[in-house]
Amino acid sequence: MNKCSSLKHNENDAISFCQECRVNMCNKCENYHSEIFQNHHIIKLEKNKDITNIFTGFCKEKNHQTELKYFCKTHNILCCSECIVKVKPNYNGKHHDCDVYIIENVENEKKNKLKENIKILEDLTINLQNLISYLKKAIEKIDKNKEELKINIQKIFTKLRNALDDREDELLLEIDNKFNELSLNEEIIKEIDKLPKKIKISLEKGKENEINWNKNKLSSLINDCLNIENNIKDINKIIEIIRKNNSLKFEFSYFLNEDGINQFLENIKKFGDIKYIPIRIFDSKIEFDEELVKKWLNYREFNSELLYRKTRDGSSPNDFHNRCDNKGITITFIETTKGYKFWGYTEL
Fold first, then answer.
1. Would you kindly state where each structural domain of the chain is located, as residue ranges?
2. Could you give phi then psi for residue 63, rounded to 5 degrees?
3. Of 119, 139, 149, 310, whose CA is between 20 and 30 Å from 270?
4. Which DSSP category does 330 fall into?
């Protein structure tokens, strides 16, 4: 809400505006003002009403307090004497090089054109609601397209990320499996740790049997020999495991070298492209001025369906009428063999 222009009442809300004095007035100021200036034009202010466009008859340029007595044809605007002055002190001379007339000289021109402009404005007003509706639907389409694009991009990049994550998990699992096959697990290590003691016992018995080979204990002797043979196998097995583990090394290989990876990362930065694809309101092979057609149709929204196309559906009158009769609102585009174009529209 505008405040009163009076220093004494500048806390009060303004209820009116004087065009001549260019001041906002509260209830008290308006009473005093009406008594002194009975012929001034007073405009009642509504709550939150914008008064910047109220015509006061005075120039609105900064620091200009002069009446609008001139017309700038260059900019099609009213201006004051300070606007057209050739000498340019601060804030003056904005229209000093323009085609300027006193307002009396353009009176007849504006008056004669008034009737024509009223008719144009009335015609435009008739279409205004269609234009507003068309604009709102166009904005809705743009917003919908925007959200669909964002969702599509998110889906694509989520798919790529999931594929990379899955591949990473597969490779990590493969590494674990390969190293588990080769490495000595805890159970084998425990058995190996017991082996020296078993070998020592086996050797002691073997040496003792070598000196005192007693055939009466043949089964025991053979068993001790088997223990020594098994110990030899166990040791050779350990040697083979050590040799294998010591001689094998794995590394991660991929189809790109370091330069290739850097190029791949650069390509990722440029991955994807947003393209503008104009959508035609009618699916016609015949080229036509779409904006002109929209204007003819008062910018109404159509969910169009292609009913008939000569090259697709046949060229006889029956072919046309069988597909287009009793379909409601229809629009027809025709191009002759000589290149002449016609169009027709019906709401029946």
1. 1-56, 183-268, 290-346
2. 70, 10
3. 139
4. E
Vertex 193 angle, CA 191 and 194, to 5°: 65
Per-residue pLDDT of the chain (348 residues; tens, 9 = 90+): 678 988 888 888 888 888 778 788 898 898 888 888 888 888 888 765 666 666 767 787 777 767 889 999 999 999 888 888 877 656 567 788 899 999 999 999 999 999 999 998 888 888 788 788 878 888 888 899 899 999 999 999 999 999 999 999 999 998 888 877 665 566 667 777 777 888 888 888 888 877 888 777 788 888 888 888 888 888 888 887 777 767 667 777 777 778 888 888 888 888 888 888 777 778 888 888 888 887 777 777 666 889 999 999 999 999 999 999 888 888 899 999 998 998 888 776
Measured CA to CA, the distance from residue 74 to residue 95 in angstroms comes to 9
Question: C-alpha distances in angstroms, 228 versus 14, 189, 208, 319?
Answer: 115, 20, 13, 101
